[in-house]
Amino acid sequence: MTRKKRPARKGKRSRAPRDSSMRRVGVGLLLFVLGLGAGLLGPWVWWLDREAGLRFADRQLSQSSRVYARPLELHDGLGLASSDLVVELEAAGLRRGDARRVGHYSRDGNRFDIHLPGFRFADGDQPPERVQLDLSGDRVRLTRSNGSALVRVPPAEIGSLMPLDDRDRTVVALADFPPLLVTGVQAVEDRQFRHHHGLDPRGMLRAAWINLRHGRVSQGGSTITQQLVKNLFLTPDRSFVRKFNEAVMALSLERRFSKGEILEAYLNEVYLGQDGAHAIHGFGRASEFYFGVPVQSLDAAQIALLVGMARGASWYHPVRNPERAKARRNQVLGMFLETGLIDQVVHDRSVATGLGVSAASVRRSSRHAAFIDLVRRQLRADYRDRDLRGTGLRIFTTLSPSAQQQAERALRVGLGRVEREAGELQGAIVLAEPATGELRALVGDRHSGRAGFNRALDARRSVGSVIKPFLYLLALADPQRFTLVTPLEDEPLSVPIPGHEPWQPRNHDGTSQGTVPLMEALAMSYNQATVRLGLEIGVAPLLRLMEQLGVVPGTDPHPSVFLGAVSLTPMQVTQLYQPLAAEGYSTTLKAIGEVVDANGRSIGRYPMRLRPIRDREALSLLDFGLRHAITDGTGRSLSGMIANDPGIRGKTGTTNDRRDAWFVGYTRDWLGVVWVGRDDHAPAGIGGASSALPVWAELFAALPMRDYSPGWPEGVEWYWIDWPAPLLARESCAGAVAIPFVAGSQPTELSPCMDEGSRRRPFWRR
Amino acid sequence: MDKRPREGMSRYWQTVSVLALGALLGACAAQPPAPVEDRSVAEEVRAPAAEQASGLQVYPLRNPAVTELADAAGAAENAGDLDRATILLERALRIEPRDPELLQYMAEVQLEKGVWDQAENYASRSFDVGPRVGELCQRNWRTIALARERQGRDDAARRARERLAQCQVEAPERF
């Protein structure tokens, strides 16, 4: 922006008359005062003029950086409950109503008619679009769309990183505002805008006359330029000095900048209400905030409401003062009609519509505190704080609003059901999509609105038996020594610890099981068998494996690590289990997909990267064992809580004195980690199966799930086993169980059952 | 700790293992069949995979949404916009994370972009969940071989070429 030359001082000195000495002194004094005034006024005007120009040109159109959830991709066959779709639509700012209007949807049973607003996605624009779909059987069937097999719901805005001045804006170029808004603002606020030079003397006289008649200040008479000055630079008090400053600065702006620049600044600057602690400035943001749609999608009634609010955003607030707001809106619509901006038909229709603003839209800011916390941390690792704030970045995250809501509900409801006294327990949930590592939900507190200690990220707690699968994975990776049927001794043992008392691990119920197959020891979480196995594997390899999977345990190599005497956060546990749930392909858990700058350019992408872990055969055997833990092991109570088990794998975890309870479970679509415990680490009488598993089940019963049938790596073969003996059998043998083996590691001995059969009868009769 | 009993191979097992090999070979070519009685023992101890072996899974009609995204990725690829192709394939993989065709397509785009490790890993994932035989299998191993060559891992690349040759063979019968 170019700046014109500074104006010359406006000092003018009057000529003094010469009369009597007394009068001379008096006049001299007066002149002195006037001269002093003029002398001071000159610099003051000069300074105001200069300030106005500088500050307008340098004003940072700081925009908060917006954080978005993942967009919901609607396509045929997608599992989706109606209630979840409603959550997604409302989170995305759509309102229930007449679907002919952009940003609204209507619902008839399972049938939805949705008028999606347009959205600028990182990979291209999607124009406003009307979609109809059917959700019978909780499956999406698109019945009408734009000829495409999939449609994205614009992502919900889940938070923002505010600029330092705490003014919330979405800057819009003048050409991108709807014409009715641009002309409408002038019709209502300043009809002479095109012609005046910053001040409108006729308007001021008219306002003064009206104010005089009413005996109070009811009419402003300020031009748009004056209002802009007031919004940009001045305090809202009503004094003569401020009026004077405002007038000088308005003249100054008009002299330096074009009408278009001034109008654009006004439209982006005018104060239009509060979002909690943040002030909403400009029509771009106000449109998103009150109606959930970009400003381009506003209809005449909505434009009239916002234009009317410019006069007094809290006086005409559509939620707090709906009657007054509606009267003002209709008054504005009348002005639109009077000036020919809209015709009678539009006017009458608009006057008849409701305000279309819901209270829900006005309470969005503090949701998703835990997830936003994680987003901030991941961003801070890659960007400087001042690049994040105020630069209008758009941050596309992986959050699923519906899954998040289900997770918050599950923790609240689940804890209420399992705790001994109300409010005793706390908990955390991490929910991810295994294949991509994308985090879909994060709960760090049972009170979902509360921001503060984020247990999902910061509560480092003993993991207990949740660690065991990794020890068993190491064992199974050595198929010549260990298979799922390798017998382990579950008997009391004493482990010498240098410099300490010997360590004597006990089982949870205090009894020992004798000889058990390896898979049984895992599924039933027997401690003594596990420690024996661990002593053959070693602590160091276990800690090394955890590091390879992206978690630094930071623990002394004490054998109690085999039983989970290592403190991890729920997030770290999720990272450990991700490759298990993703069939051996590890990827870093992520909350952010892409960061786009204010001009729509991608400045950071977090692509899906796969890293195969070795021993995928061993992993598939472990996976089989974790399925066994759900069907026949410590997680078997799950079957009573999940109606249609799609093939859940999982592991419980309980720590000493029942201080911490864990459950980790996964399906093809989801990996969920639940931790439950007390913030003060006191014994809480809780256990993985009794406290954490019900919370997990509460969540997973509400998630859409597809059947889970993992593939088997090339080198895995299946044999009938005379369970629990490590002997080959045939299907007809009583109690024979089909077990997978790394090829060549299956037992060599045949079960006696097999032996008898083949001896006694010729093959054609078998 | 006690381990799997490992006293010398039992008489039965010797027959079983020899004949299991025979049975496998028999699936590949017209080998003379093993004596029926013993072969049945070998077959009997084998169990079907508890859940469908994905290697021979028959893929149902592809989700049209995935097809649309894959086609768009193809258009982007033809236009030379590999980044956009990647984004579109990621979207498709979010819908069908285990679609072997998609995974292989992603591997090939990564190959074009010169991201060798990801090309190899996506191809390997595609092989894991794919048919492990025929045309897709060949594309899997060709990609893996190429990616390994570019990384200077010649031995590993040679092994991939050997595996590539086996893709033409019929998949071994799963019980």
Set out the fold topology.
The complex is a heterodimer of chains A (766) and B (175).
Chain A: H1 21-58, E1 65-68, E2 72-75, H2 82-91, E3 95-96, E4 104-108, E5 111-116, E6 119-121, E7 124-126, E8 129-134, E9 141-144, E10 150-153, E11 157-161, E12 167-168, H3 179-189, H4 201-214, H5 224-233, H6 240-256, H7 259-269, E13 271-275, E14 278-281, H8 283-291, H9 300-309, H10 322-338, H11 344-352, H12 369-382, H13 385-388, E15 394-397, H14 401-418, E16 426-433, E17 438-443, H15 455-458, E18 461-462, H16 468-476, E19 487-490, E20 514-517, H17 518-523, H18 527-537, H19 539-548, E21 567-568, H20 570-581, E22 585-586, E23 592-596, E24 602-605, E25 611-612, H21 616-631, E26 649-654, E27 660-666, E28 671-677, H22 688-700, E29 716-721, E30 737-742, H23 752-760
Helix pairs in contact in A: 1-6, 2-14, 3-9, 5-6, 5-7, 9-10, 10-11, 14-22, 16-18, 16-21
Chain B: H1 11-28, H2 36-45, H3 64-78, H4 82-95, H5 100-113, H6 116-129, H7 134-150, H8 154-166
Structural description of this entry:
The complex is a heterodimer of chains A (766) and B (175). Chain A has 766 residues and is of the alpha+beta class. Chain A is 37% helix and 17% strand. Chain A contains 23 helices and 30 strands. In chain A, the strands form ten sheets. Chain A has a five-stranded mixed sheet with strand order 11-1-15-23-24, with helices on one face. In chain A, strands 3-4-5-8-9 form a five-stranded mixed sheet, with no helix packed on it. Chain A is elongated and about 140 Å long. The model of chain A is unreliable at 1-16 and 760-766 (pLDDT under 50). With 175 residues, chain B is mainly α. Chain B has two domains: 11-46, no CATH class; 64-166, Serine Threonine Protein Phosphatase 5, Tetratricopeptide repeat (Alpha Horseshoe). Chain B has helices at residues 11-28, 36-45, 64-78, 82-95, 100-113, 116-129, 134-150, 154-166. The longest helix of chain B has 18 residues, at 11-28. The radius of gyration of chain B is 21 Å and the shape is flat. Chain B starts with 10 loop residues before the first helix and ends in a 9-residue tail after the last helix. Chains A and B meet through strand 19, helix 18, strand 25, strand 29 and strand 30 of A and helix 2, helix 3, helix 4 and helix 6 of B.
